[in-house]
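Encode chain A's predicted structure.
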Amino acid sequence: MGGFGKVMEQTNSINPNLFDFSYIPGIEFALTLIIAIVGAELFNQSNWQRVYSPKTMLTMKKSFLIAGLLVAVIIFTVGFFGFFAVAHNAAENPSVAMFTFLLEVAPHWVLLTAMVLGIALVMSTTNALLNGLVSLFTIDLARLNSKLSHKSLVAIGRWFTVVLAGLAILVSTKGYSVLYLFLIADLVCVGAAFPVFYGMYAKRLSGKGALLASIAGMLIGAYFFPNPDFTKGNLFWSFMAALIASSVFSVLLGLFGKRFDFGILKKKVTALSE
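Encoded structure for chain A:
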């Protein structure tokens, strides 16, 4: 590619805004991603599975700390592929910019290796996500119908996994932008984030109140959400509106609800010990 300096120089000549730390749209998009990713990860069931899997609390803290540091380095490194793609006019579709860049400049064996590793990464992530979603479904099903046997729950869980995976495959065949689909899912999570977690501490916010606040945040955020070609709407204001609206509604609805006694949880929930 002619060296890192040449790539950066070429990128700067094509789009100098990428290197301007005072560029407002860039700052807005950075804040949007922070809000979106944090909101989505709060509901990532694969993360919560790992919260309960370690032997001790100290093990969990060390694991998340080490993983977080490694992820930060990886994301920082992979982020440079955005500059590389721009420099080689391969960033037209951001969802696959890394692969279109490798297709133009790298040998085929490098591209194939990246694709195999990418598929392995997605498979491992999807596996953990499906396990988390299905476990939530089967737990609630067992609570609603105590007569279901263990064997029946396992069978239902497996079929539910097939249905979820089938729906995901169906959507993938439509060729939608992966980035756009992620942003839609992130908006839903951001709209629900504050009501759900605020409800763990607010004594007067009921489940119905949290649900109403979440829906209100999602709808208001959806009003500002961009269309697929990003010619209308604003991502930053969409996520900010969803977060602020759901938070305000949660606080207001939490003023008038029936008081909940958190002491009951001590009898119904087993606490994790050190």
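The chain has a mean pLDDT of 87.
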